[in-house]
Specification:
The protein is an alpha+beta fold. 16% of the residues lie in helices and 25% in strands. It contains nine helices and 25 strands. It is globular.
Length: 430
Protein backbone atom coordinates (compact mmCIF):
# COMPACT_ATOMS: atom_id res chain seq x y z
CA UNK A 1 0.00 0.00 0.00
CA UNK A 2 1.07 3.54 -0.75
CA UNK A 3 -0.36 6.54 1.14
CA UNK A 4 -1.98 9.50 -0.59
CA UNK A 5 -0.34 11.76 1.99
CA UNK A 6 3.38 12.50 1.45
CA UNK A 7 5.60 10.38 3.71
CA UNK A 8 9.35 10.91 3.71
CA UNK A 9 11.54 7.92 2.96
CA UNK A 10 12.90 6.52 6.20
CA UNK A 11 9.98 7.72 8.31
CA UNK A 12 9.26 5.33 11.21
CA UNK A 13 5.58 6.12 10.74
CA UNK A 14 4.84 4.54 7.36
CA UNK A 15 1.47 3.15 6.33
CA UNK A 16 2.71 -0.23 7.60
CA UNK A 17 2.70 1.15 11.15
CA UNK A 18 -0.39 3.18 12.25
CA UNK A 19 0.41 3.54 15.97
CA UNK A 20 -1.84 5.28 18.49
CA UNK A 21 -1.15 8.11 20.90
CA UNK A 22 -2.66 11.01 22.81
CA UNK A 23 -2.18 14.56 21.52
CA UNK A 24 -3.24 18.14 22.12
CA UNK A 25 -2.73 21.41 20.23
CA UNK A 26 -2.68 25.08 21.15
CA UNK A 27 -6.01 25.52 19.36
CA UNK A 28 -7.54 22.49 21.09
CA UNK A 29 -5.72 21.83 24.39
CA UNK A 30 -7.87 18.90 25.54
CA UNK A 31 -5.89 15.65 25.06
CA UNK A 32 -7.45 13.11 22.67
CA UNK A 33 -6.47 10.02 20.63
CA UNK A 34 -4.61 10.25 17.34
CA UNK A 35 -2.50 8.28 14.91
CA UNK A 36 0.47 9.40 12.84
CA UNK A 37 1.53 8.92 9.22
CA UNK A 38 4.86 10.48 8.27
CA UNK A 39 4.76 14.09 9.46
CA UNK A 40 0.95 14.23 9.64
CA UNK A 41 -1.16 13.42 12.68
CA UNK A 42 -4.76 12.27 12.28
CA UNK A 43 -6.92 13.59 15.12
CA UNK A 44 -9.21 10.61 15.74
CA UNK A 45 -11.72 12.66 17.71
CA UNK A 46 -12.25 15.00 14.77
CA UNK A 47 -12.18 12.07 12.36
CA UNK A 48 -14.91 10.29 14.33
CA UNK A 49 -16.99 13.46 14.69
CA UNK A 50 -16.72 13.94 10.93
CA UNK A 51 -18.23 10.49 10.32
CA UNK A 52 -14.85 9.07 9.35
CA UNK A 53 -15.66 5.67 10.84
CA UNK A 54 -18.97 5.45 8.98
CA UNK A 55 -17.93 2.30 7.11
CA UNK A 56 -16.59 0.43 10.13
CA UNK A 57 -19.62 -0.93 11.92
CA UNK A 58 -17.56 -2.73 14.55
CA UNK A 59 -16.48 0.55 16.15
CA UNK A 60 -19.79 2.43 15.84
CA UNK A 61 -21.06 1.63 19.38
CA UNK A 62 -17.71 2.70 20.83
CA UNK A 63 -16.93 6.03 19.13
CA UNK A 64 -16.72 7.74 22.54
CA UNK A 65 -13.29 6.15 23.08
CA UNK A 66 -11.89 8.61 20.53
CA UNK A 67 -12.98 11.53 22.72
CA UNK A 68 -11.24 10.15 25.80
CA UNK A 69 -8.10 11.72 27.27
CA UNK A 70 -6.27 8.36 27.31
CA UNK A 71 -6.16 5.23 25.15
CA UNK A 72 -7.46 3.02 27.97
CA UNK A 73 -11.02 2.86 26.64
CA UNK A 74 -9.86 2.00 23.13
CA UNK A 75 -7.37 -0.55 24.48
CA UNK A 76 -10.06 -2.25 26.57
CA UNK A 77 -12.07 -3.04 23.40
CA UNK A 78 -9.61 -5.84 22.67
CA UNK A 79 -7.18 -6.85 19.95
CA UNK A 80 -9.80 -7.76 17.30
CA UNK A 81 -11.09 -4.16 17.47
CA UNK A 82 -7.57 -2.66 17.47
CA UNK A 83 -6.72 -4.73 14.40
CA UNK A 84 -9.88 -3.71 12.57
CA UNK A 85 -9.41 0.00 13.31
CA UNK A 86 -5.77 -0.13 12.20
CA UNK A 87 -6.62 -1.89 8.91
CA UNK A 88 -9.49 0.52 8.31
CA UNK A 89 -7.22 3.54 8.82
CA UNK A 90 -4.62 2.00 6.52
CA UNK A 91 -7.31 1.78 3.84
CA UNK A 92 -8.56 5.33 4.45
CA UNK A 93 -5.02 6.67 4.15
CA UNK A 94 -3.92 4.55 1.20
CA UNK A 95 -3.68 5.87 -2.36
CA UNK A 96 -6.12 3.20 -3.55
CA UNK A 97 -8.57 3.74 -0.67
CA UNK A 98 -12.00 2.21 -1.03
CA UNK A 99 -13.42 5.15 1.00
CA UNK A 100 -12.08 8.32 -0.73
CA UNK A 101 -15.10 10.34 0.35
CA UNK A 102 -14.27 9.94 4.04
CA UNK A 103 -10.99 11.86 4.07
CA UNK A 104 -8.97 11.84 0.82
CA UNK A 105 -11.64 13.77 -1.10
CA UNK A 106 -13.15 15.46 1.97
CA UNK A 107 -11.31 18.77 2.11
CA UNK A 108 -13.31 20.11 5.07
CA UNK A 109 -12.50 17.12 7.28
CA UNK A 110 -8.87 17.10 6.16
CA UNK A 111 -8.49 20.70 7.35
CA UNK A 112 -9.88 19.80 10.78
CA UNK A 113 -8.50 16.31 11.36
CA UNK A 114 -5.05 16.32 9.72
CA UNK A 115 -2.43 18.20 11.71
CA UNK A 116 1.27 18.87 11.08
CA UNK A 117 3.28 16.95 13.67
CA UNK A 118 5.13 20.16 14.57
CA UNK A 119 1.86 21.62 15.91
CA UNK A 120 1.12 18.65 18.16
CA UNK A 121 1.96 18.06 21.83
CA UNK A 122 2.27 14.40 22.87
CA UNK A 123 1.09 13.05 26.21
CA UNK A 124 1.54 9.79 28.11
CA UNK A 125 -0.77 7.61 25.98
CA UNK A 126 -2.31 5.50 28.75
CA UNK A 127 -3.58 6.14 32.25
CA UNK A 128 -1.14 3.81 34.01
CA UNK A 129 -2.51 2.11 37.10
CA UNK A 130 0.48 -0.14 37.77
CA UNK A 131 3.98 -0.50 36.38
CA UNK A 132 6.14 -3.63 36.65
CA UNK A 133 9.75 -3.70 35.49
CA UNK A 134 11.24 -7.06 34.53
CA UNK A 135 14.86 -8.20 34.19
CA UNK A 136 14.58 -10.18 30.97
CA UNK A 137 17.78 -8.98 29.29
CA UNK A 138 20.11 -11.84 30.09
CA UNK A 139 23.23 -10.16 28.68
CA UNK A 140 22.66 -7.17 30.96
CA UNK A 141 21.91 -9.42 33.94
CA UNK A 142 25.08 -11.44 33.34
CA UNK A 143 27.36 -8.43 32.79
CA UNK A 144 26.14 -6.52 35.85
CA UNK A 145 26.10 -9.69 37.95
CA UNK A 146 29.69 -10.40 36.94
CA UNK A 147 30.76 -6.92 38.04
CA UNK A 148 29.52 -7.52 41.57
CA UNK A 149 29.65 -11.30 42.06
CA UNK A 150 32.01 -12.60 39.37
CA UNK A 151 31.08 -14.60 36.24
CA UNK A 152 30.50 -17.85 38.15
CA UNK A 153 27.74 -16.28 40.27
CA UNK A 154 26.54 -13.60 37.86
CA UNK A 155 23.02 -15.01 37.45
CA UNK A 156 21.00 -15.91 40.52
CA UNK A 157 19.71 -19.53 40.63
CA UNK A 158 16.14 -18.40 39.82
CA UNK A 159 17.01 -16.33 36.73
CA UNK A 160 16.34 -18.92 34.02
CA UNK A 161 13.34 -20.41 35.81
CA UNK A 162 11.14 -17.31 36.08
CA UNK A 163 10.94 -13.73 34.80
CA UNK A 164 12.43 -11.71 37.67
CA UNK A 165 10.71 -8.35 38.28
CA UNK A 166 9.92 -5.59 40.75
CA UNK A 167 7.03 -3.15 40.99
CA UNK A 168 7.84 0.40 39.87
CA UNK A 169 6.17 3.76 40.36
CA UNK A 170 3.52 4.53 37.73
CA UNK A 171 3.13 8.19 38.72
CA UNK A 172 6.63 9.07 37.48
CA UNK A 173 6.26 7.55 33.99
CA UNK A 174 6.65 10.52 31.63
CA UNK A 175 6.39 11.03 27.90
CA UNK A 176 9.39 11.63 25.65
CA UNK A 177 10.73 15.18 25.84
CA UNK A 178 10.03 15.62 29.55
CA UNK A 179 13.12 16.87 31.45
CA UNK A 180 14.47 14.52 34.11
CA UNK A 181 15.67 16.14 37.33
CA UNK A 182 18.71 14.65 39.02
CA UNK A 183 17.45 13.03 42.25
CA UNK A 184 18.73 13.40 45.80
CA UNK A 185 19.24 10.43 48.07
CA UNK A 186 21.42 8.53 50.50
CA UNK A 187 24.82 7.54 49.14
CA UNK A 188 27.48 5.37 50.77
CA UNK A 189 30.68 7.21 49.90
CA UNK A 190 33.08 4.62 51.29
CA UNK A 191 31.68 1.09 50.92
CA UNK A 192 34.91 -0.40 52.31
CA UNK A 193 34.67 1.46 55.60
CA UNK A 194 33.89 -0.60 58.71
CA UNK A 195 31.12 1.76 59.77
CA UNK A 196 28.51 2.23 57.04
CA UNK A 197 27.38 5.85 57.30
CA UNK A 198 25.69 7.40 54.22
CA UNK A 199 25.65 11.01 53.10
CA UNK A 200 22.67 12.88 51.65
CA UNK A 201 23.53 14.30 48.23
CA UNK A 202 22.41 14.56 44.61
CA UNK A 203 22.93 11.36 42.63
CA UNK A 204 26.46 11.11 41.23
CA UNK A 205 26.04 7.94 39.15
CA UNK A 206 22.98 8.68 37.03
CA UNK A 207 22.41 6.00 34.42
CA UNK A 208 20.05 4.83 31.69
CA UNK A 209 18.31 1.55 31.01
CA UNK A 210 17.33 0.81 27.42
CA UNK A 211 14.05 -1.11 27.52
CA UNK A 212 10.90 -2.04 25.64
CA UNK A 213 7.54 -1.46 27.31
CA UNK A 214 4.22 -3.23 26.78
CA UNK A 215 0.76 -1.92 27.68
CA UNK A 216 -1.96 -4.30 28.88
CA UNK A 217 -5.41 -4.10 27.26
CA UNK A 218 -7.34 -6.94 28.89
CA UNK A 219 -8.34 -7.33 32.53
CA UNK A 220 -8.27 -10.65 34.33
CA UNK A 221 -10.35 -11.26 37.48
CA UNK A 222 -8.67 -11.50 40.86
CA UNK A 223 -7.56 -15.08 41.39
CA UNK A 224 -7.57 -16.05 37.70
CA UNK A 225 -4.17 -16.27 35.97
CA UNK A 226 -3.64 -15.48 32.29
CA UNK A 227 -2.36 -18.61 30.48
CA UNK A 228 0.81 -18.07 28.49
CA UNK A 229 -1.03 -19.32 25.38
CA UNK A 230 -3.57 -16.47 25.75
CA UNK A 231 -1.31 -13.74 27.12
CA UNK A 232 -0.59 -12.14 23.72
CA UNK A 233 -4.28 -11.18 23.48
CA UNK A 234 -3.80 -9.07 26.62
CA UNK A 235 -1.10 -6.87 25.08
CA UNK A 236 -2.31 -3.62 23.48
CA UNK A 237 1.02 -2.46 22.11
CA UNK A 238 4.62 -1.46 22.66
CA UNK A 239 6.68 1.63 23.44
CA UNK A 240 10.36 2.39 23.92
CA UNK A 241 11.40 2.96 27.53
CA UNK A 242 14.28 4.49 29.46
CA UNK A 243 14.12 3.46 33.11
CA UNK A 244 16.52 6.06 34.51
CA UNK A 245 18.61 4.69 37.38
CA UNK A 246 20.49 6.31 40.25
CA UNK A 247 23.18 3.66 40.70
CA UNK A 248 24.73 5.08 43.89
CA UNK A 249 21.34 5.33 45.61
CA UNK A 250 20.55 1.81 44.43
CA UNK A 251 23.77 0.30 45.84
CA UNK A 252 22.94 1.50 49.34
CA UNK A 253 19.18 0.89 49.41
CA UNK A 254 18.51 -2.28 47.45
CA UNK A 255 19.28 -4.83 50.21
CA UNK A 256 17.03 -6.62 51.09
CA UNK A 257 13.96 -5.52 49.11
CA UNK A 258 15.38 -4.17 45.85
CA UNK A 259 15.22 -0.79 44.03
CA UNK A 260 13.19 2.06 45.51
CA UNK A 261 14.29 5.72 45.27
CA UNK A 262 16.93 4.72 42.73
CA UNK A 263 14.15 4.06 40.22
CA UNK A 264 11.06 5.99 41.27
CA UNK A 265 12.04 9.49 40.09
CA UNK A 266 11.46 9.02 36.33
CA UNK A 267 10.77 6.48 33.59
CA UNK A 268 10.52 7.90 30.06
CA UNK A 269 8.44 6.27 27.31
CA UNK A 270 7.93 7.05 23.63
CA UNK A 271 4.53 8.64 22.83
CA UNK A 272 3.16 6.34 20.10
CA UNK A 273 1.93 2.83 20.99
CA UNK A 274 2.86 0.41 18.20
CA UNK A 275 0.36 -2.44 17.86
CA UNK A 276 1.44 -6.12 17.80
CA UNK A 277 -0.09 -6.39 14.31
CA UNK A 278 2.44 -3.85 13.01
CA UNK A 279 5.31 -5.78 14.61
CA UNK A 280 4.11 -9.24 13.59
CA UNK A 281 6.11 -9.31 10.31
CA UNK A 282 9.24 -8.86 12.44
CA UNK A 283 8.56 -11.65 14.93
CA UNK A 284 11.69 -13.65 15.66
CA UNK A 285 13.24 -15.97 18.19
CA UNK A 286 14.93 -14.46 21.23
CA UNK A 287 17.73 -15.92 23.27
CA UNK A 288 17.16 -19.62 23.86
CA UNK A 289 16.54 -20.66 27.45
CA UNK A 290 18.54 -23.81 28.15
CA UNK A 291 16.52 -24.56 31.31
CA UNK A 292 13.40 -26.74 31.22
CA UNK A 293 10.55 -24.43 32.18
CA UNK A 294 7.55 -25.25 34.29
CA UNK A 295 4.49 -25.84 32.08
CA UNK A 296 2.82 -22.48 32.80
CA UNK A 297 5.76 -20.67 31.13
CA UNK A 298 6.23 -22.94 28.11
CA UNK A 299 5.51 -21.33 24.74
CA UNK A 300 4.73 -23.27 21.58
CA UNK A 301 5.87 -20.54 19.17
CA UNK A 302 9.64 -19.88 19.27
CA UNK A 303 9.12 -16.51 17.55
CA UNK A 304 8.10 -14.65 20.67
CA UNK A 305 10.41 -11.61 20.32
CA UNK A 306 10.65 -8.83 17.72
CA UNK A 307 13.51 -7.76 15.46
CA UNK A 308 13.65 -4.11 16.55
CA UNK A 309 16.92 -2.31 15.91
CA UNK A 310 17.62 -0.13 18.93
CA UNK A 311 19.97 2.82 19.20
CA UNK A 312 20.91 5.14 22.08
CA UNK A 313 22.33 8.60 21.42
CA UNK A 314 23.93 10.82 24.08
CA UNK A 315 23.89 14.53 23.23
CA UNK A 316 25.96 16.82 25.43
CA UNK A 317 24.96 20.27 26.61
CA UNK A 318 26.87 21.81 23.69
CA UNK A 319 24.87 19.79 21.16
CA UNK A 320 27.43 17.16 20.15
CA UNK A 321 25.78 13.76 19.66
CA UNK A 322 27.34 10.30 20.04
CA UNK A 323 25.73 6.95 19.39
CA UNK A 324 26.67 4.97 22.49
CA UNK A 325 24.58 1.83 21.97
CA UNK A 326 23.31 -0.23 19.03
CA UNK A 327 21.49 -3.45 19.86
CA UNK A 328 18.31 -5.41 19.15
CA UNK A 329 15.20 -6.23 21.17
CA UNK A 330 15.58 -9.92 20.42
CA UNK A 331 18.29 -9.95 23.14
CA UNK A 332 15.70 -10.99 25.74
CA UNK A 333 15.44 -14.34 27.50
CA UNK A 334 11.76 -13.91 28.39
CA UNK A 335 8.87 -12.79 26.16
CA UNK A 336 6.13 -10.41 27.23
CA UNK A 337 3.51 -13.22 27.17
CA UNK A 338 5.74 -15.15 29.57
CA UNK A 339 6.12 -12.07 31.77
CA UNK A 340 2.36 -11.61 31.84
CA UNK A 341 1.70 -15.29 32.55
CA UNK A 342 4.15 -15.25 35.46
CA UNK A 343 2.86 -11.90 36.77
CA UNK A 344 -0.66 -13.31 37.03
CA UNK A 345 0.06 -16.91 38.08
CA UNK A 346 -0.78 -15.91 41.65
CA UNK A 347 -4.11 -14.53 40.47
CA UNK A 348 -2.84 -10.95 40.40
CA UNK A 349 -5.40 -8.90 38.41
CA UNK A 350 -4.14 -6.79 35.51
CA UNK A 351 -6.03 -3.81 34.14
CA UNK A 352 -6.03 -1.92 30.83
CA UNK A 353 -3.21 0.60 30.95
CA UNK A 354 -0.88 -1.44 33.15
CA UNK A 355 2.71 -1.15 31.91
CA UNK A 356 5.35 -3.89 31.74
CA UNK A 357 9.03 -3.09 31.17
CA UNK A 358 11.38 -5.63 29.64
CA UNK A 359 14.43 -4.74 31.69
CA UNK A 360 17.66 -3.51 30.15
CA UNK A 361 18.29 -4.83 26.63
CA UNK A 362 21.97 -5.44 25.90
CA UNK A 363 23.92 -7.37 23.33
CA UNK A 364 27.19 -9.15 24.01
CA UNK A 365 29.48 -6.51 22.47
CA UNK A 366 30.62 -3.41 24.36
CA UNK A 367 28.88 -1.21 21.77
CA UNK A 368 25.58 -3.04 22.39
CA UNK A 369 25.26 -2.42 26.14
CA UNK A 370 21.97 -0.86 27.24
CA UNK A 371 23.32 0.89 30.35
CA UNK A 372 26.32 3.07 31.16
CA UNK A 373 27.10 0.82 34.15
CA UNK A 374 27.91 -1.98 31.73
CA UNK A 375 29.86 0.24 29.34
CA UNK A 376 32.02 1.77 32.07
CA UNK A 377 32.66 -1.59 33.81
CA UNK A 378 31.05 -0.49 37.04
CA UNK A 379 32.50 3.02 36.93
CA UNK A 380 36.08 1.91 36.24
CA UNK A 381 36.35 3.07 32.62
CA UNK A 382 35.36 6.21 30.76
CA UNK A 383 33.17 6.35 27.67
CA UNK A 384 34.62 8.48 24.88
CA UNK A 385 32.22 10.86 23.14
CA UNK A 386 32.47 12.78 19.88
CA UNK A 387 34.10 16.16 20.38
CA UNK A 388 36.59 14.88 22.95
CA UNK A 389 34.38 14.69 26.05
CA UNK A 390 34.20 11.59 28.26
CA UNK A 391 31.56 10.16 30.55
CA UNK A 392 31.18 7.54 33.21
CA UNK A 393 27.66 8.57 34.13
CA UNK A 394 25.33 11.35 32.98
CA UNK A 395 26.04 15.02 33.58
CA UNK A 396 23.52 17.84 33.87
CA UNK A 397 22.53 19.00 30.40
CA UNK A 398 23.05 15.60 28.78
CA UNK A 399 20.18 14.32 26.64
CA UNK A 400 19.55 10.62 26.06
CA UNK A 401 17.53 9.66 22.97
CA UNK A 402 16.42 6.10 22.21
CA UNK A 403 15.09 5.13 18.78
CA UNK A 404 13.77 1.79 17.53
CA UNK A 405 13.10 0.68 13.95
CA UNK A 406 11.82 -2.48 12.24
CA UNK A 407 12.31 -3.26 8.56
CA UNK A 408 14.79 -2.49 5.80
CA UNK A 409 12.56 -0.89 3.14
CA UNK A 410 12.63 2.88 3.70
CA UNK A 411 9.05 3.16 2.44
CA UNK A 412 7.54 0.72 4.93
CA UNK A 413 9.45 1.09 8.19
CA UNK A 414 7.74 0.47 11.52
CA UNK A 415 9.17 2.55 14.34
CA UNK A 416 8.41 4.22 17.63
CA UNK A 417 9.67 7.76 17.24
CA UNK A 418 11.97 9.09 19.95
CA UNK A 419 12.18 8.29 23.64
CA UNK A 420 14.13 11.28 24.88
CA UNK A 421 14.92 13.15 28.08
CA UNK A 422 17.43 15.80 29.22
CA UNK A 423 19.01 15.76 32.66
CA UNK A 424 18.47 18.94 34.69
CA UNK A 425 20.31 19.84 37.87
CA UNK A 426 19.13 18.66 41.27
CA UNK A 427 16.85 20.90 43.31
CA UNK A 428 18.51 23.22 45.78
CA UNK A 429 17.60 21.72 49.14
CA UNK A 430 18.22 23.24 52.53
Amino acid sequence: MRPWLPVSRGSPFSLANIPFGIISTAASPTPRPATILGDNVLDLRKFAEGNGFANLGLIQPHLAVFSSQSLNGFAALGRPVHSSVRKYLQDVLSESTSHPQLLKDNEALRREALLPVRDVVNHVPMEIGDYTDFFAGINHAFTVGSLFRGPQNALQPNYKHLPVAYHGRASSVVVSGTPVRRPWGQILENPAAKEKIPVFAPCRRLDIELELGAFVCKANPLGQPIPVTEAAESIFGYVLMNDWSARDLQTWEYVPLGPFNAKNFATTISPWVVLPDALEPFATAGIENDTKLLPYLQESDPKSQYDIRLRVVLTTRNGIATTITETNSRNLLWSFPQMLAHHTITGCPMRPGDLLGSGTISGEEDTARGSLLEQNKGGKQTIRLNGGEERKFLQDGDTITIVGICGLNDDSLVGFGECSGQITEALKLG
